[in-house]
Amino acid sequence: MTDDQSADSGNQRRDVVVPLRVYKTVTVFSTLFAVASVVAGFILVDVATQLASAPVSEIDVPVAIAGIGAILAGTVVYAFSTRFRTEEMGKSKDDADKPSDNG
Amino acid sequence: MSLERKDEHDHKGWMESRDLTPIESVYLTVLVWLDKRLRVVDYLEILEDLYYKVNMQMPKSHTEQYNLDNKFWYWYPLYALGSFSTVAYVVAAISGALLGFYYAPAAAAADGTPTIAYDSVLIIMGQLNLGYFLRSVHRWAAQIMVAAVFLHMLRVYFTGAYKEPRELNWIIGIVLISLTLVFGYTGYLLPWSQLSYWAGQIGVEMSLSIPLIGEWVAQLLFGGFSLSQSTLQRMYILHVFFLPFITTAIIAVHIGIVWMQGIAEPH
């Protein structure tokens, strides 16, 4: 495991190095899941509030909470996926050995 | 024999060798489980591979070869106008086909009430679910197509792309821009509103002003010298039957010739 919390003080980001193929799996599926659940969440919120036109008394609270929950779940999955990286993907500050010839 | 690629990696054991939190290992296990079943990543990798192979076969363009990019780059967005017109055409075709389920080309109702055609447009705009949206998409696609086709023609003219050996496609393009305008005109008459009606009247009188064959043209296109049910019927059939077939076929030829001849390089 690679847990370089030591180097960057103040930023307690955890890094998990995984094989490239697993990294691709994580990126593709977490993005798919995040997009699907955020869209589904908005649809649920729309259904619960009748496209934000329902008076407060008619809002379907469980469905609305389920919708917000789905949006949050998508966000969490996406955010969680950012801790995985491959060998080559050093943090940008560690990339000093690579020449910056982009320009 | 296995189709799996052989490599050094320990596919089964690697996860144990890492110090993962329970959430991380569950997360990875779930995603890897999904990946093994759905294989989305494999297909994306095939696409990536194809992308690079296709691009490696591309020869250097004229502008790259002679280093003209620095002088010519601002023309490049205008090279998308042909595709843009095609996209607008496809959008108009799809939305138009859907509108066709609700529109009725009948100019009946002489008792002062609105005609059936105008009423069906009112129903689309006022009562049909997403009807306002659908008709707006159709209208905007039509407006954009006319604009894009015209700008496409300007681009072809000012980059000299009409020159030998592309004269034929230039002529076909002139036919296509005319057909686009006829499409627009016939569609404009279909709501049978005041705007449509008087635009139709102008059309009749313009036809009648043609020397010698004017009356014949007015009869042929408008079904008479004054507007009637047969005018609306003709506009409808032109708009949804004649023009779509003719225009789609000619667009196919137009694009086919571009495909065969290649994009005209600037000089």
Automatic annotation (TrEMBL), chain A:
Membrane-crossing residue ranges in chain numbering: 22-43, 63-81
Domain of life: Archaea
Keywords for the protein's UniProt record, in alphabetical order: Membrane, Transmembrane, Transmembrane helix
Keyword Membrane belongs to the record: yes
Pfam families in alphabetical order: DUF7315
Location of the DUF7315 domain: 14-98
InterPro entries in the record: DUF7315
Name used for this protein in its record: DUF7315 domain-containing protein
Species the sequence originates in: Haloarcula salina
UniProtKB/TrEMBL annotation, chain B:
SUPFAM superfamilies xrefs: Transmembrane di-heme cytochromes
Transmembrane segments: 78-104, 140-158, 170-188, 208-228, 240-260
Domain of life: Archaea
GO terms assigned for molecular function: electron transfer activity; oxidoreductase activity
Key words of the record: Membrane, Transmembrane, Transmembrane helix
Domain Cytochrome b/b6 N-terminal region profile: from-to ranges: 30-267
GO biological process: respiratory electron transport chain
Keyword Membrane in annotation: yes
GO cellular component, one term: membrane
Protein name: Cytochrome bc complex cytochrome b subunit
Source organism of this protein record: Haloarcula salina
